[in-house]
Amino acid sequence: MFLSFFLISSFSFSLGQASLPLVVNTWPFKSAATSAWSVLRSGGSVLDAVEKGCARCEVEQCDGSVGFGGSPDESGETTLDALIMNGNTMEVGAVADLRRIKNAIGVARAVMERTEHTMLVGEAASVFAENMGFVAEDLTTNKSLNIFSLWLKGNCQPNYRKNVSPDASKSCGPYRPQAVQTQTRGPRHVGIHSHDTIGMIALDQNGHIAAGTSTNGLNHKVPGRVGDSPIIGAGAYADGSVGAAAATGDGDIMMRFLPSYLAVELMRAGADPSAACKSAISRIKRHYSDFFGAVICANITGHYGAACNKAPSLTQFHFMVSNPESATPILKSVDCF
């Protein structure tokens, strides 16, 4: 019944007219859109477009939530996650908990093209990157150090812990196990400025499609935490016979529902991209009504759409669209529901 409703109503949710080539990315990250669009316009591949677009955000530290110098973890370190997927070969490369390397999306592509693996994580991923010629650099900046210092001075909340109690006077630990029955979870402060991702979809005139993500994760996360961005089907997914999708928001919640994979499968079943995005958000909303998140979708005909959950920190979602209908990337928006 739920799927049937979206298939029947898909026309009313349509946002974008079909036009190729196409680049869609999350948030008002215009420089990233411009970089990706320039690649496609000059005859470059969709993988090049996704890589260059996401890399632009890594260099510019888009909104402080992508690239180096942002989202320090509990120990004050910035680590990066990224994914790139070729929808025509179904190959994927991903990295998580990457240290010392600024170009996370580039390392993800190297995993895809230089190994038979799909994902590398942590220190080993950084060593692999250095072996592939990526330059090791400090990802910490004065800004990220200040974020970390203020967090420590503020008794270290949020700390994303539950069923534990601090041994020290401050709530940042160290921690001891505590009975589940007597522990209530601290407030969860996940929003636009504490965690975000660039998610990007690129489609050329020959039907090639790719998707990718890059992020520095969640502010004050537990070291080793990996969110949805580098997880296939959660952060992004692409299928050359259908289309692609990418997600952004509270990854700890969103990854449990594989919203990007679900959106692509709904488009496979005939749903309009906007309806597919909305259905993927609705699936999560049933369990977490106030979660922070959004999904972008595009099918292989060049139609696109987006949807977001109405939350305290998100009432309207902005995303970029680049196609032949305009000489430059256009900022689009959708009301959250």
Brief overview:
Belongs to the Ntn-hydrolase family. This protein is an alpha+beta fold and 337 residues long. The chain has helices at residues 2-9, 30-41, 46-60, 104-114, 122-131, 142-153, 251-254, 259-268, 273-285; strands spanning 22-26, 80-86, 91-98, 119-121, 164-166, 175-177, 198-203, 209-215, 236-239, 243-249, 293-299, 304-308, 316-322, 330-335.
What does this structure look like?
With 337 residues, this protein is α+β, with helices and mostly antiparallel strands. The chain has a domain at 2-64 and 193-335: (Glycosyl)asparaginase (Glutamine Phosphoribosylpyrophosphate, subunit 1, domain 1, 4-Layer Sandwich), CATH 3.60.20. Helix content is 28%, strand content 23%. It is built from nine helices and 14 strands. The chain has helices at residues 2-9, 30-41, 46-60, 104-114, 122-131, 142-153, 251-254, 259-268, 273-285; strands at 22-26, 80-86, 91-98, 119-121, 164-166, 175-177, 198-203, 209-215, 236-239, 243-249, 293-299, 304-308, 316-322, 330-335. Strands 4-3-2-8-7-1-13-14 form an eight-stranded mixed beta sheet. The chain has a four-stranded antiparallel beta sheet with strand order 9-10-11-12. A hairpin with a 3-residue loop joins strand 9 (236-239) and strand 10 (243-249). Helix 3 (46-60) runs antiparallel to helix 4 (104-114) and helix 8 crosses helix 9 (273-285). The longest helix has 15 residues, at 46-60. It is globular. It starts with a helix and ends with a strand. Mean pLDDT is 90; it is low at 1-14 and 181-187.
